[in-house]
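Quick start: read one record
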Amino acid sequence: MQEFLSIFQLNILIPWIIAMIFGIFVGAIPGLTATMGVALIIPLTFYMEPIAGLAMILGVSFCAIFAGDIPATYLRIPGTPASGAAILDGYEMNLKGKGPLALALDLTCSFLGGLIGVLILIFVAPVLAKFALKFTNFEYFWLGTLGLSMAAVISKGAKVKGAISGILGLIFATIGIDITTGYPRFTFGSTQLMDGIGFIPAMIGLFGISEVFKNVLSPETLKAPAIMEKIQISFKSVGKLLYKFKFLIIQSSIIGNLIGALPGAGADIAAWVSYGVAKKVSRRADQFGTGIEEGVIAPTAANNAALGGTWIPALVFGIPGDTITAIVLGAMMMYGLKPGPLIFQQNRFLVNQIFYVALVSQFFLLVIGWAGIKAFTYFYKFPRNVVLVGVGVFCIVGSYALRNNLFDVEIMLLFGILGFIMERCQIPMVPLILALILGPMIEDNLRVGLVKSDGSFLPFLIRPICTTFFILFILLFFWEPISKPFKWALNKRKK
């Protein structure tokens, strides 16, 4: 109880709330990621108590991940990588005049997903962390492959066009230094491409600048407001939807937390995988991507739950779950704390404070997040031409600020042109984004795994977790033909 009351001291509470407000701003501006937001506030925490600094970090990350859904819903531009899946149904709901409802669901599901994720962190952290440590290159290869296979599940339209998009993404993902040989690939002598193509500028270009190009070439839409006609939302209607899809929220939160607990996976992969699983098991699978509530609930519950998961390996074993917790571990070292199994014995008071801060942050998120929705909704009520100027500026600033490099702005513009062409040709962009995220993870783990096994593929199949993932992969693609005999036998028995 003492740990709980201690977090409400003014020297902790005030910077914590200010950081959460800052997190809403960071998440809602395309290009300013949650990781960037955390990195920016770290210098401010040098002379604070450890729990005050950690409260600011937690507050920024939870708020930024949620706020990324605001521009994704209203403008089809993800504010953060973890909001990429929100454009599929959230934006479609906005086109139907249900944007505020989509964001109300986003906010409440972020709250519930985060709450479930933190509770799992508190009660089963050691168990999940031990499971996460069993993952080697062989298991991570299959995890990445399963994530990439979700492109086939969530893509709309012709499978051939989806395959073209995915292959294009994998080609882009191979640009840069080869991890095993150290030799540059497809850089054409450019030192700027040695690190590969930055995912953030590419995503901003595909979804942000391409949308600006599309609207500029349709002058009749420029004077219309960015938000469609607003519908009235009651807490009762949102509550009914949450109750209706309660099992989906729990399912997505658990998936998000499990993936978040795997070092290097993170909230963006959790959101896509959760969306794909939700579509696969839904009775309305054919309606995903057309603006249904399930398509909004699944990714947003998963990405906030994943944040709780990322703290599991960070606290228990000192292994970062994602880029945010990598910064957190550095900050904890700065405070003189050593993450790992002993932290639960040597700093139990602080660990309990972290748990309480994470829980209370979810309730603060409801209030601050709702205020953020109201503020950005007011901004998006301006004519679309005014909003698009602001979007264009933020896209350029966001791309440049990532590495203070004009080359990233050029990449963003090139991918904007590519995204515009792909949309005109009705080629889905989601497989390209997934391939760009997961391509390096799949290739690196495949090649390192083959080096470990002297070129043998056997460990990729016979290790228990690998075998489970392989079976899931087969079921994902061949469930329909496999299940037909069972369905036929079941129908015949009913007759």
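The longest helix spans residues 99-133.
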